[in-house]
Every structure is written in C-alpha cells, then in structure tokens.
Amino acid sequence: MNEIQAALEALEPKGNFYAQRTISGSYLQVNVNKIGRLVYPLTAEIIQSLIALAEPAKYGLKEQTILDESVRKVWEIKPTKFKILKMGWRKGFEPLLDRIKRDLGLPDETGLSVDLHNMLVYEPGCFFKPHQDSEKVDNMVATMVVVLPTKHSGGELVVEHNGRSYTFDSAKESKLVQAFSFYADCRHEVKSLKSGYRVVLTFNLILENYKGQMNSLTERDFDKRIDQAIAHYFSTRDWLPSWRRNEDKPLKFVYLLDHEYTESGLSWQHLKNTDRMRVEALLKASDKHQLDAYLTLVDSHETWDCYDDNDDFYSSKYYDDEEEDEESEEANYILNDIIDSETTIEYWLDRQGNHRNFNTCYVEDCYVHATVSGEDFTPYDSEYEGFMGNYGNTMDRWYKRAAIVMWQKKDAAAILFGIDPLSYINALYQPMRDGIAIDKLEIDLHAQIDALESVWSAYIKKVETPEQYGEMFQFVSYIADKTRAKKILENFDIKLIAVDYTKDWHDLSGKYSAEWLIEVFSRLIEKERLWDGFNDFPKLIKAFHQISIDKEVLRFLFSMQLQRKVERLQIQLERKRERIDAKSIKLRHDLVSELVNVALNLEDRVLHDKVIDVILSRKLYLDSLLLVDVIERYFPLSKEMRVQYDIDRIISFVRLALEEEKNLGVRDENDWYITFEKSCECELCDELGGFLHDKNAQSKTWPIGESKRQHVSSMVYDLAVPVKIETLRQGSPHKLVLTKDDELYAISLKRHQKISGALAQLCLDFNIKEGAV
Ligand SMILES: O=C(O)CCC(=O)C(=O)O
Ligand SMILES: [Fe+2]
User: Fold this and answer.
1) Residue 120, ligand 1, Cβ within 6 A
2) Which of 70, 118, 209, 458 has a CA 20 to 30 Å removed from the CA of 391?
3) In this structure, how many other beta carbons lie within 10 angstroms of the beta carbon of residue 202?
C-alpha cells in the first residue's frame, strides 16, 4: 500500500535524493578503545591516535574487497573498536532520522533505523573515486555519513542521482556534527582532501515497515515508478493486512483524485493537472498489465475523532504543529485522527468514456488510495457527535470524490458480476436475445462463462421469476456446450426438478441427450443430504411422461424416489417403536401404494417389480391389512395385464401374511401373554420379560430405585408393548407399577375379525381358494 501511495505522491516530489542536517555534538558521544570519549572539535593528536587504530580501507568490487590506493585512499576503523552512547543518540538522532526520512520523501508509515558501518579518517590526499555502495542489508534505503567537527578543506562528497548531482562540502561547517544522507543507488565520490582532517562515521539507513520494492521507491521516473508499483500491487498480496493475504478475492485498485468533479464535469479528457498526470501514468500501466480502468464518482464517508477547539491543550498542540494550518469547515472542532472510512462507488465511466449503469459498489479500505486526504475536501454533509463510549467526540463527514478504479481483466467477470449480477447476466444473455447464432461467438461466450464459474452459485440466488428461470434454461441450451451447460445447472438444487420446468428439461434432453439429463439430475439429487423426495411425485412423473421424456429418465427419477426414501425409512425403522407407530405405518403404506400406482400408470413392469421387491423384502414393516388396499389396484386389470405384471407374486405374499396372522387365532380372554423382541440382557429386563410373558399376570408392582425405574420405563417404551407405567411414590424405594392393557383381548378379537374378513374378500376378488397354496 505505501509503495503505490509513495509512487503517486512522487508526482509532486516531496523529498529529494539526499538530506543534509546538522546536530549538536552533545548528542554524539563516541567512546574509542584505548582513547576514550572523543571531544569536539577533534585535535590533531587525537586524530593521530585514531589513525594508529586504523587500517587502510578496502573497497568492494563485485564479490571481493580490494585494496587499491588509486581507487580509494582513507583510514578505516572497524565498529568493534568504538561505541556510540545510546542516551544522546536516542535524544538527538532518533528525531533527526525522522526528519531525514521526510527529507528523502519516504512514506509516512515507515521508519528509519541505522546500521553502523565504520569510522573513516581522511588525511590530506585521501579520496574515494566514484562508486556505488553495495547493499549490505535488506531494505537498505540510503547511506548516512556523519562528519565529526574538525577543520579541513576539500574532501567534498559529490552525489549523483538520475542525472542530477549535489556536492556536500563538509568543510563549510566545523563546529556542529553534520549528517548527510543519500539514496543507496546513487553514484558518489569523495574528492581529495586538501588540508586538515575529515573524520566521518558511515551508516546504512534501513527502511522499516515497508512492504514495497526498494527500487521503485527511489525511482524518479514517474511513469516507470507508477508502472512498477502497479505491477507489484497486482502480482502480490504482501501489501494487504496479514490476515487477508491468503484470500483469493480479486484485487481492486481505487485511487481518489485530488480535485473535485461533478457528474457532468467528469471525463477522461478533462481531468485537472495532477489528476491528469497521475491518471495518464496509471492508464499506461493498466494497458501494459492487462487491467480494466473506470473513471468513477464515489461517496466517501469518514468518521473522525475530534477535539473541541476551546480545549486549550489540544488547540495549542495543534497550532504548534509545523504543518501549515488547515481550515476546518466545522470551525469549532479540530479533526484529530480518522477512525473509520467507507467508500462507495456510485457513478461509472468506462474506458471509452461511456456511462455504465452499474449498481453502487462498496470498496474495502485496503484497496482505497489517495494523495489528498478527505480532510482537505469540503464535505457535503457532516455530523458532530459528543462523547460516545469507545471514542471521544466524533465527526462524521461525507464527501463526493472522483476516483480511478482498476482491476485485472481476468477478474473482470467476477468483479462486475459481484457489483451487479443481474445486469451482468443481462449482457451475457444479449446475443441470445438478439438471435445471434452461437457459432459466431462461441469462444467468446464460453470464456465469459468460464470466468464466471466461481460466482454462478451466487447468481442462482438472484433467479426468481419464471421468466428468469425460462431464460436461464434457454441460455443453457443456447450455449451448445454439454459440459458448460451441466456446470451451470449443477449450481441449482433439487427444486429445479419440478413440474414447471418439465418442458425445459425435455428440450435440453433433446439437445444434449437423455444420459446427459440423467447426469445433471444425479448431481442435483446428490446435493440433497436428507431425502424428503420429490414434491408430489406422481404429478411430476406424469408431467414428464406426458411430454414424452425418455423412458430412462423416468426410470431414473422413479428409482431415486424409491431407493432413497426406503433408505431413509429403514434408518428410522431401526427403532421398534417406529415400526408400530400408526402414523408411520400410514406413511410407509402411502409411499408404496403411490409408487405402485405410478409404475402401473407408466405401464412399466421394471419399475413395478422394484416396488414389489421392496414390499416382499419386509424392510418397511408394512401392515398386511393395508396391503390389501394396494393390491385392490390390480382388480380392474385384464387377465393379460395381471400376467404381465406377475401380480400373483404380491397377491400370494399378502394372502400368506393374512393367513399366518389369522392362524394365530384370538387370545384367551384371561391370557395376558405379550410377545416382544428382547434387546437388553440385564437382570431387570429378564424380570420385565418374565412379566410380559406371564399369561396370568396383568400387573406388577416393583419396588426399585430411580435409575432402575428409568431403565425399565424406557425399555417398555422402546419395545412398544401395550403396557401402562406408573410410579407409586410411597416407601423407599418408590414402586414401579406396570399394567398390561385391559383391551388386549378386545383388540386381538377385532384385529382377527378384520384379518379374516380381508382374507375372504381377497380370495373372492381374485378367485382363489382360501388355504390353497
Ligand atoms: O566519506 C564519505 O563522505 C563517504 C564515504 C563513502 O562513500 C564510503 O565509505 O562508501
Ligand atoms: Fe560510498
């Protein structure tokens, strides 16, 4: 972020390639081994003793360091031999470094730290020929030469940068310490010293908190610098806040222009001075890096932390600031710090200058850049709020600003779609509506569809009206591409397989084949985790049947409905209670009878067999009495049809089931025997079993503790036996009272009568003899 900001700001160069400052010697206390604290100005004796500690300086040539007195002649003292005291440094040099940072035009958010390199002592005749310092550490942005106070002449340091040069003549000052810094990529030389001594400390200046590329920071060619910054911006995410670097959301770049524009005054051709130059450079970069660019108007809402001007402390602090006074619109308040900002793009011009009717679009802060802060704009609205919880006083300000918005062409579909899905889709559908033959634009359209792959599912949510569905189906057919058609449809869910769309599906099946349709249906069905089945299945199948969809499609839908419903029911039926629950029995019965009907209506023996197989498997614990209803469906069938469907299979199954039950007879009036399926082997359940099987006992009073009572009660519930449970809260422990249903006999009698009746009717209807096997 700061890289691109700095690049944009570089148009009005705030900084220079060098910085020259002075500071009192009291801030630079240097202790040298064996010599002690240096006192300024340095005397000739001290300097001689420094030389005694020194060695001739080498210089770096490619990978080596070389001693060559025709290139460099100077004494060097390694930093291990002296120390700079921290206290003075902190007080004097740290603030000084901040100023140097500004002099060099480095981004506000950054900071400079130093890396001491060496001490150099120049005697008359010493020099250093033109060279560039090798970058010894990462993010080394500049070299700083600190000249200690002592008289000399000559020894000028000449620094060059992009054709400009500056001569730092340290001889002009002999009382104060001089700090001269210059960009690391400058060529520079030290002219021969004429008289006296020149003693300097050299430092590498390191830029902290900077995530851009160093070369782009010191590049003075504006276009090139913008270009580099833009290339970097779109090729990495390391300028994003750390928690967002792993996202793969498309990147946006929004630069708020310096000047104000109205809707009618906004055009690429009529931008005002700095805006024009920056936008031109950005457009050049956008062409080179395959970016789309829009000129826009944005609504910018900022919330500022602010102070009351009458508060003496803050107002004096404010006026002390060395920056020029800023005229605040809200005369009584001073804006202090920005707390929050929100940018919404509201008006769009495309690269050709045409107004585009996109929705408004909110842009996250990390993508928004500006060289002039909102503070310098006149808000069209503002609102002051007194002390509110977390913050002190706040000022909300709304501005209208112009902005250039850019993103990578490869992200265009996803971004535009995100901004305004429906108009994007409208544009996508346009050729179809215009009746343009697909082979004329196939490749183009296919590329657009592919780019949208990740967002189709978002689009699906916007498809609501029958017309929208209709057009979507039409489009899927229009694109004439099986694979893409399938991909688009797969974003929907099972609700798309519905009566309303049978005609659309039929058309697609005609175009892409029935196998293709079945694949699409499978994908939609797979998505359904819990299968409630198709809504109104008979109606759905009928609709597909009437439109003469391929038989295999019908069979597929039928099998899905049967298979997945049975699977789900089987899980429920693991609970014995469920098996005898009246509601549940009815539901299972309705399912099989519905499916038998559908199979017969479709006149499909294969499907019919599938349902009958399920019935005969006894998986669904169907009630034989109810099955009589089901097979009555066959009664009107002709003889041939009965043979064709092999109805004897189901009829004899039902008949046998009825006979089996009938043969059990009616229980005795005084018989309290209850059958059950034992599922627990504990002593309590043994005792419970004894009671249930006891022909003579209708009830049992059982003094057992609470947890035991609970276990027995839940077993009685799970086994679904007709036994009433009560707790007698007397004595210790309380007593569990189990009572077998009074109606056992009456129910048995009634059921037996019904079974006998049904069996007789069945034999009559289908002309079979009772008891005949
Ligand atoms: O002595 C100076 O002013 C500069 C020295 C220098 O260029 C170097 O040490 O690389
Ligand atoms: Fe140098």
Assistant:
1) yes
2) 209
3) 17
* C-alpha of residue 188 to centroid of ligand 2, in Å: 6
Collapsed DSSP state (helix, strand, coil) of residue 192:
coil
- The mean pLDDT value for 683-709 works out to 91
Task: Give the HSE-up count for residue 30: Cα atoms under 13 Å, Cβ half-sphere.
Answer: 27
ipTM above 0.95, yes or no: yes
CB 258 within 8 A of CB 317: no
pLDDT digits (tens, 9 = 90+) for 154-196: 999 999 987 789 999 999 999 999 999 998 888 999 999 999 9
Rounded to the nearest angstrom, the distance between the alpha carbon of 154 and the centre of ligand 2 is 17
- For residue 16, report the distance from its CA to the centre of ligand 2, in Å: 18
> Distances in Å between the alpha carbon of 150 and those of 52, 54, 117?
18, 18, 21
- The minimum-distance atom of ligand 1 relative to the CA of 198 is 1
Atom of ligand 1 nearest to the CA of 59: 10
DSSP E strands: which ranges in 9-110? Answer: 18-23, 30-32, 36-37, 55-56, 59-61, 64-66, 72-73, 75-77, 82-84
- Give the number of whichever ligand sits closest to the CA of residue 181: 1
Q: Which ligand is nearest to the CA of 121?
A: 1
Q: Please give the number of the atom of ligand 1 that sits closest to the Cα of 200.
A: 1
Ligand 1 close to Cβ of residue 128 (< 6 A): yes
**Cβ pair 128, 183 in contact under 8 A:** no
- Both tokens assigned to 34: 């064996």
Q: Does the beta carbon of 20 sit less than 6 angstroms from any atom of ligand 1?
A: no
Distance between Cα 79 and ligand 1 center (Å)? 15
> How far, in Å, is the centroid of ligand 1 from the Cα of 202?
7
Among protein residues, the one with the nearest Cα to ligand 1's atom 9 is: 202
pLDDT tens per residue, range 40-65: 999 999 999 999 999 999 988 777 88
591 lines ligand 1 (CB under 6 A): no
Select, from the ranges 206-215, 458-467, 572-581, the one with the highest average predicted confidence (pLDDT). Answer: 572-581
Intra-chain end-to-end CA distance of the chain, in Å: 89
Q: Is the pLDDT of residue 216 over 70?
A: no
By the 8 A CB rule, do 126 and 193 touch?
yes
DSSP-assigned states of every residue in 113-167: EEEEEEEEEEPTT-EEEEE-----STTEEEEEEEEPS--EEE--EEEEETTEEEE
Q: What DSSP line would sit under 693-709, residue for residue?
A: H-TT-SEEEEE--HHHH
- Nearest C-alpha neighbor of 133 from the set 187, 58, 207: 187
Gyration radius (Cα) of the chain, Å:
45
Instruction: Give bridge partners of residue 179 from the DSSP assignment.
Output: 21, 146
* Nearest C-alpha neighbor of 677 from the set 640, 720, 613: 720
Closest ligand by atom to 74 CA: 1
> Residue 680 C-alpha to ligand 1 middle, in angstroms?
93
Q: What is the mean pLDDT of residues 628-632?
A: 86
- Which atom in ligand 1 lies closest to the alpha carbon of residue 147? 3
Extract the tokens encoding 272. Answer: 């005002």
pLDDT at res. 675: 86
Cα–Cα distances in angstroms (integers) from residue 85 to residues 29, 91, 92, in the given order: 6, 11, 11
Query: Does the CB atom of residue 201 touch ligand 1 within 6 A?
Result: no
Length of the chain: 773
